[in-house]
Amino acid sequence: MKNTSALAETAALWAAVRFTADGLVPVIAQQHDSGEVLMMAWMNREALEETLVTGKACYWSRSRGRLWRKGESSGQTQKVLALRLDCDGDTILLLVDQTGVACHTGRRSCFFNEVGPTGEITVVSAPLVTPEALYGAEGHSHP
Prior knowledge:
Elements: H1 5-8, H2 11-16, E1 25-31, E2 37-43, H3 45-54, E3 58-61, E4 66-69, E5 78-85, E6 92-98, E7 113-115, E8 121-123, H4 131-135
Parallel strand pairs: 1-6
Antiparallel strand pairs: 1-2, 3-4, 5-6, 7-8
């Protein structure tokens, strides 16, 4: 990622990104070297600008109603190596270098519940670290 404010002001980018009516766009974070899908989150324009300028993933927390700088409380950061738009401009793919785990449950990926053919759900990966170790004794609520 280029760390320039000029990039965040690129008119072509703002014309290409199709935000929802409430000003958000879904974002998928994927580990750049393995292709592992780590998580899904949301960005508003401010979060996207900050991500472009800093090269670090910044999202919009719908539950908290504020910017969520990935790793600000856990230390589990995402360095953004590339940002891609899908064909419709309504979803962003971040290729990241994930430090530690991506999920607030302590798992590498948020996608650890596998749904079987009859609808049963099986947990396919165990936590690598406890939420308490990441966020302290008070734990962590969903971003």
